TrEMBL record:
One of its GO terms (cellular component) is Golgi membrane. This is Glycosyltransferase. It comes from the Eukaryota. Its EC number is 2.4.2.-. SUPFAM superfamilies: Nucleotide-diphospho-sugar transferases. The chain crosses the membrane at residues 21-39. It is found in: Golgi apparatus membrane. GO terms for molecular function: UDP-xylosyltransferase activity. Belongs to the glycosyltransferase 77 family. Residues 107-277 form the Nucleotide-diphospho-sugar transferase domain. It comes from Brassica oleracea var. oleracea. Keywords: Cell wall biogenesis/degradation, Glycosyltransferase, Golgi apparatus, Membrane, Signal-anchor, Transferase, Transmembrane, Transmembrane helix. The keyword Membrane applies. Pfam families: Nucleotid_trans.
Amino acid sequence: MAQPQQRPIANRPISFLNRNGLFLLLLALLVFLGVYLPLSESPLFMFQNRTSSSSSPSFVVSDWRDYSLAQAAKFVAKNGTVIVCAVSYPFLPFLNNWLISISRQKHHEKVLVIAEDYALLYKVNEKWPGHAVLIPPALDPKAAHHFGSQGFYNLTSRRPQHLLDILELGYNVMYNDVDMVWLQDPFKYLQGGHDVYFMDDMTTIKPLNHSHGLPPSRNGVTYVCSCMIFLRCTSGAKLLLKKWVEEIRAQPWSNTEAKKPHDQPAFNRALHKTTHQVSNCFL
């Protein structure tokens, strides 16, 4: 007797009770947990379209172009401190990732995003009103995200003036690049009354009693990363930022690879020139 002809495997219905079906269901669940839930923890997703709450600004901002740095800093500051990043729209995924890590440490309400273009300004304030401000002039978002380009330099070279402006308003500042994340609360490590705290990422783990002097040079040049800086509202911190601004202005843009300027070498030169006038702490 002829055996009944079986349907090709590709045409068989998938049952979620069999092994393949359970595997597909588990895979879909993992994708959901790994992608959607971390994003949903970001303040840009947690507070979508928040237009009225006890923590919203007391004024109505009909056009975020008129939102001043003084208003923004006053709104987000907690205990006299503001957490700051300066970023353009192409870095939005990095910004979300960074915000997720800060929200897990319960410090996200202190965050002020200095938007370097109007696209990011409106995106952040649409989802998280009051937490983004633009300090004119706005940059071209298409030109500002290629490392080593003049557009990228134009973005990063504005950073010390932004930080100085906030200090002049009377606030302490925790500055972060957004290509990093918080694994712990950094504020508990800011011991003592130093003017400025930096992360020295060129050495191994240090002993508790390590020196806070400038770290050893590399090829004759001290290279301290400016990706994470905490500045107290002191004359010493302001002096360092003013010198950083001066060093950047003294190096005009050059497209020659050997002479191409960056904001970080200028930062290190400012450190050297103010080392006896500013109390630094290297973490």
